Known about the structure:
The model is unreliable at 209-216 (pLDDT under 50). The chain has helices at 2-38, 61-72, 92-113, 140-155, 184-205, 240-245; strands at residues 52-56, 82-88, 121-127, 177-180, 225-229, 251-254, 272-273. The protein is built from six helices and seven strands, in the order H-E-H-E-H-E-H-E-H-E-H-E-E. The protein is 41% helix and 12% strand. A seven-stranded parallel β-sheet has the order 3-2-1-4-5-6-7, with helices on both faces. Strand 1, helix 2 and strand 2 form a beta-alpha-beta unit. The protein has one domain (50-273). It is of the alpha/beta class.
Amino acid sequence: MELWLVSWTSLFWAATFATVACLSTIITFMYALAKSQNSQVPQWRSRNTPIHLLVVLGSGGHTAEMFSMLRRMELDPSKFTHRTYVVSSGDNFSATKAVEFETTDLRERINTNKKPAATGSYSIVTVPRARRVHQSFLTAPFSTIQSFWSCLLVLRGLHPDQQSLISPRLPSPYPDIILTNGPATAVCVILAARLLRLWFFLCGVFSVGRGTQSGTSALSDFQLRTVFVESWARVKTLSLSGKLLLPFADRFLVQWPGLEGKKAWPGMRGTEYVGPLVD
């Protein structure tokens, strides 16, 4: 009888501890999420500071829309001195379009504006698909974890496809801006960016881990800022990836007025209507 009581008492306290630990973790995560999601990015940065832009590409329409946006915004390679294009394994179409954009569109823009032929640098990084077509849902979690880990390596500049990103012109491997318009890979990339920012936030709270970690630089307020652009085809409802990433993206841009002001929950930043961004 006494042994039975002891075992149940131990089980009760173990369950209580696990519950408190889980609740504390969730509360800390939600607080950090809300704080960082609603934080204001500094409105100035030193002139001529190089900007590292990371673009998440998807197959077919997502890639076509993305490069239409980049052409329309007249991307200046002298400011965005390094561009990283993230594609999923097997997506040769997106990789080819990235090369065409770099070797044709950007060079034509430089020649048209009569600017020095300094196009900066770019890299195309291939990450595993989170879920392949017709893949079993039983094995999908494992491939998703593999994709997520690969995205973490990309954001830290440690992916095998990346050249060394540390240089006098680009002192940190972390991208400044992450731009995506909704392919499935974007979910892993933005969540990985949020995890890294949460890590640095918690390091700041507990005053540990600041400075260099595992050979990489500390994170600045300008880095790992995420911009999600909802597809032009989404007129009344958000896409599945958009619904998943609405509470995580720093800015969520929509191209139709019917989607303006949508929020994940009260108190969070809402979607921003900016009009058509594609040609």
